Structures are given as C-alpha cells and as structure tokens.
Amino acid sequence: MSGFIRYAAFPLCLYAAQGGIQAARAAEGFEPRYNLAGSLGGEIFAPPDQAGWVFGTAATHVRVDRVTGGDGETLTQPIAGGTVALPAGLPAAMAPSFGANVATIPAHGSLDRLDLALAYFSRDVYAGGRLLFIADLPLARKKQTILPHAKTPLLEWSPQAPATLSGAVQAGFHEQYQGALAAQGSAMTGEVRGIGDVELAAAWQYIGEKWRVLGGASLVLPTGKYDTGPAPDIGTGTFKTLRPGVQVGYLPTPKVALAAKVSLGLNTRNRDNDLRSGNWAGLELAAGYMTPVGVVGVHAVRVQQYQDDDNNPFGPSRFRSTNAGAFFTTKVPGLDAALTIQSISTRSSRYAKAGTMTQVRLIKGF
Questions:
Q1: Residue at 296 is within a domain
Q2: Strand, helix or coil at 181?
Q3: Domain-located, residue 7
Q4: Domain interval for residue 232
Q5: How many CB atoms lie within 10 A of CB 244?
Q6: What top-level branch of life does the organism fall under (predicted)?
Q7: Which residues of the chain have pLDDT under 50?
Q8: Can you name the residues that pair with 107 across neighbouring β-strands?
C-alpha cells in the first residue's frame, strides 16, 4: 500500500500567474510501513515451534476508496492566489488578481502485493525460547487515480480596466485553471509494479502451555523504486524504518485465544526530499475461537503518529488509522501448513488512506 499519493499539489501557471498550489508531499504516501491488513490470525493458537526453516507467503489485495485529511474527510489542499498578466500593450496596473482557493483531492486505486518470507528458527533454546530471523521480499502492483477539482475563482479587476476585457480574460483563465488541475491529476494517475521495500527481522519466541511471546525488531530498507516525481512509486521513500515490537498471546482455554501486539515505527529522514515522517505507534488486538474446521476470530489495528512530520508542507500531518475485521485459519490437508484468510476495513482515519484489505497467508515449516 505504499505511496498511494505522494504529491497532493499542483504547480499552476495561468497567464503568468504568480502563486498557485505549492508542491507538497505527504510523508510515507499517507501510510506507515506497517501491515494494516493485520498480522494476528489463527496462528496465535499454534505459532511455528520448530528448529530450522519456515516459509511464509501472503497475497494482499487493497482497495483504496479515498485519502483523508486532518478532519477525516476527503483530502484538501490550499491553492495560493495571484495575478494574471495581460497581453502586451495593456498597462500592468490593469492586471486582475484572483484569491486563494482550496482544491478537493478525490483519490482511489488498488494494490496487489505478494510477500515471500523465509524464516529460520534456532536449534538451541535461549531463556526457554528460540531465536528467529526473517527476510521478507514484497512484489507489488499499484494503480491510482487522482481527480483534483476546485471552482475557478473570479478575477478582480482594476477600475481602469475596460469592461470588454474582463469577459474574455475570465474565460481563458477558467480554461487554464481547470486544465492545470486536470494535468496534475493526470501526472499523478497511473500504474506501477516491481519489488517493494525489503524487510529484515530478528526476534525471540517463547511458546508455553497458555502463553506465547514474540519480541524483536525489524528493519525496512528502501529497495523499492522511488523518485520525487508525481507518478506512483512502489517504494515509500529513500529512508529506513526501525520497527521494534512485542506480541503476547494467551489461551484461557484450549478453544479460546487472545493476543495483542505493540509496535513502534522509528524513521530516518528521506534523503531525496529532506522530509522526515514522524515516528508512530501501533496496537493490534485479536481474539479467536477454535472450531472443528479451524479458527474463527476478529481483529483490530490502530496505528497513529505520536510525533509531527518535519518539513512537510501539509504541516504536522499526523497519520492515524483505525481498522477492524475478521479472520479464519485452518490446516491445509496433506501439506501440514497453516492457511489464514482475513479481511479488514478502515473505520476512521486522518492523513491516511481509507479502504478495505483482504489477505491470504500460508505458513509452512520444513
């Protein structure tokens, strides 16, 4: 889901107008480097507990319905006012001006992502648990459509300007004003595919009769293609994210499992645009019930920045997203692998993408 919108601003050149919308970039493309589809499923009953190699893969489909601003509604961006230069031969004092405006930025799209993960569990036991090392390679295809719109402001004229001039100039101004908005939306609309940002992780896992604990940290590297242009990118930016976290599961009965996961996202500065996305915290909760055919359950994800963005034209722009959904996990006959199907949707958000995420996840030990 990385980088769905990176520019939400439109350079405007209308009859040599001074002003317009300043170039603005949203930190991390209106999403953090975190799996908002949810990582807690039926595996909370029986996480992999074996020495050696484990392979995991996850296919995720994301449908983005909109990107929200600070009020939770569709994202908007101010457009600065300016002046319109008149044709040669007319006094500059007659040049009309136009006031500031606000553009609404409807956006929608989709992301199809395939994660290929390889994990190794230590053969030795440390403090009752095993060490775990993971490498995750994401492959993704992203589509996005951006349709900015705003009413054309009326030109304000000097009293010395002839009335016959205003109508013709206003018509031309409207055409170029709307044309500039449409052109910028077209530049931000498109499709891209490729390798995303690789993730490396190390952790310690303990599995007891009733308690399961997983603690460690992951490092997200900027391996996905990224540049400063308005077109969509697979990568979220040329910066690193360190993500420490702790996951705890508890089985009050053999048929009921509860789990919670707490994570932090610590970002470096994007070296391409000098923007630093504020650090964030994530909380994930899940509850599952064991049935004869597998585990059914519900889960929720909340991720929120606790630190302002730095050098972001949107201002502090603190990301916030709350999502909830359900999951089902079962064993694949003959394969001895755990299969999880889950769906989750956005309940509320600020400076974030809002939509629905569906994921199919398979974990197999060797």
A1: yes
A2: helix
A3: no
A4: 27-81+102-153+168-365
A5: 14
A6: Bacteria
A7: 1-25
A8: 146
Give the closest residue to 17 by CA, choosing from 71, 94, 98, 122: 98
| Two tokens, residue 317 | 């722009």
- Model confidence over 186-206: pLDDT tens digits? 999 999 999 999 999 999 999
In terms of pTM, does the model score above 0.85? yes
Report in angstroms the alpha-carbon separations of 260 from 96, 116, 280, 357. 60, 24, 17, 20
Residue 20 in any domain: the answer is no
The answer to whether 324 touches 349, Cβ cutoff 8 Å, is no
**Domain total of the chain:** 1
- pLDDT tens digits, 265-319: 999 999 988 889 999 999 999 999 999 999 999 999 999 999 999 988 778 889 9
> Can you tell me the distance from the alpha carbon of 60 to that of 113, in angstroms, rounded to the nearest whole number?
5
**At which residue do the structure tokens 């930016």 appear?**
237
In angstroms, rounded to a whole number, what is the distance separating the alpha carbons of residues 350 and 74? 10
How far does Cα 59 stand from its chain's mean position?
A: 17
CA atoms of 331 and 219, how far apart (whole Å): 30
